[in-house]
Amino acid sequence: MAQVGANMEYQEYKWAYSIMDSSKVSACVISMLLIVYGSFRSLNMEREARERAEREREASLLGGKPVPTTSPNNNVQTLNTMQALCFPLGSSVALLIMFFFFDSMQTLVAICTAIIACAALAFLLTPLCQYVAGSAGLGAGSRAACGRYSAPEMAAALLAAGIVAVWVLTGHWLLMDAMGMGLCVTFIALIRLPSLKVSTLLLTGLLLYDVFWVFFSSYIFTTNVMVKVATRPAENPMNVVARRLQLGGAMRDAPKLSLPAKLVFPSMHHQGHFSMLGLGDIVMPGLLLCFVLRYDAYKKATLVCQMGQVPGPRSMGSRLTYFHCSLLGYFLGLLTATVSAEVFKAAQPALLYLVPFTLLPLLTMAYVKGDLRRMWSEPFITPNGKSGADFDV
Fold it and tell me: Where in the cell is it found (predicted)?
């Protein structure tokens, strides 16, 4: 009788046990780590670019040459209002193209994905290679080993190319996840949102995009377009080359490739069970968190400049930054999306939960602190017209 009661209780609360599965815990932890790392990587790149520009300015003044007027970091793309509005529309067009014409262009998609993922993975691995080179005492001779690229950067590129090559040959999910992680960090670090207005427009548009293509596309296209495109494997380019060279009998067919448009986390407790999280569910909220981290750093630097010293100890409430608030909101949103997927037993548009849980607390906190107007339009411009980039954040 006790055993029957325990089984009934398990069935009743099965969804609660499911959300503690290793695959879902891994998805939550890794996605948050990627956002935190990508945001701090972006902040560090901004500081390094500013220091480099300052050294070039000083060298130009000492040498009697004109001061360069180029942007401190040419690799960074800042989205404007029009781009934020058009991004969901462009994503919808790309999704439809992949849905209708994937069979005829899958080899091209796989090749382009491999090239882009290789560059992103090299970006992710570069700090690791720089650390190894510094630990081995190669830091002094690691600059300009091949043109404008240093030895650690070249090593990271070769390591990334090797990982992508093994992925093409094996199609292993772990290598696909590594490539997806590189894409997440690269996009968060190299794409910036200039204001809370642009952030709100982008995330609201993507929320509507996600909800439509997950919940309502099946009524028009008789299938869930988002899930269909995300889970459809692509033809391995190695098989295409083998057929062209008529090597079909001489080599075994390479496996089809699951494209790194999502992160896959297999369960340790249930064989064949896995959790899947789209890269957009990490990158898009990550862009918002990267923006608020930059604003936190800018606000702190502005306060230091005004006071002439580092602020003293603060209360617990004042230590809660916008980044902390948004990161907590992201965790709660991801938890809510996971619970909803378990309760309804259907794919959920994660942005439906992530956007409100990250954006609404941020807007509320900014309003309470009196920063909402500045963050909405010109967050990095001081009252005297000086750009926030001139401060050491």
Answer: Endomembrane system
d(CA 292, CA 294): 5
How far is Cα 389 from Cα 47, in angstroms, rounded to an integer?
Answer: 9
**CA-to-CA distance for 227 and 210, rounded, in angstroms?**
11
Q: How confident is the model at residue 389 (pLDDT cuts 50, 70, 90)?
A: very low
Output the CA–CA distances (angstroms, integers) from residue 172 to 106, 136, 232, 239, 292, in the order listed.
18, 32, 15, 16, 36
- Report the amino acid identity of residue 334: L
Please name which of 340, 271, 267 lies closest in space to residue 15, comparing C-alpha atoms: 340
Give the span between the Cα atoms of 36 and 289, in whole angstroms. Answer: 8
The Cβ of residue 37 has, within 10 Å, a number of other Cβ atoms equal to: 18
The answer to whether residues 184 and 63 touch, using CB atoms and an 8 Å cutoff, is no
Average pLDDT rounded to a whole number, residues 125-132: 91
Residues of the chain with pLDDT > 70: what percent?
A: 78
Angle of helix 280-307 versus helix 173-190 axis, rounded to 10: 40
Q: Which residues are catalytic?
A: 210, 281
pTM equals 0.86
Sign of torsion over alpha carbons 195, 198, 204, 209: negative
